[in-house]
Amino acid sequence: MLTDQQVVRYSRHILLPEVGGKGQEKLLNAKVLLIGAGGLGSAAALYLAAAGVGTLGIMDADTVDLSNLQRQVIHATPDIGKLKVESAKESIFQLNPDVFVLAYPEHATADNVPRILPEYDLVVDCCDNFATRYLLCDAAVIYEKPYVYGSILRFDGQAAVFKPPAGPCYRCFFHEPPPAGVAPSCQEAGVLGVLSGLIGLIQATETIKLILGVGEPLIGRLLMVDALGLEFMTARVKRKINCPVCGNNPSITDLRAENYCQPNCDAKQEDQ
Ligand SMILES: [Zn+2]
Question: Average pLDDT, whole number, for the chain?
Answer without folding.
Answer: 93
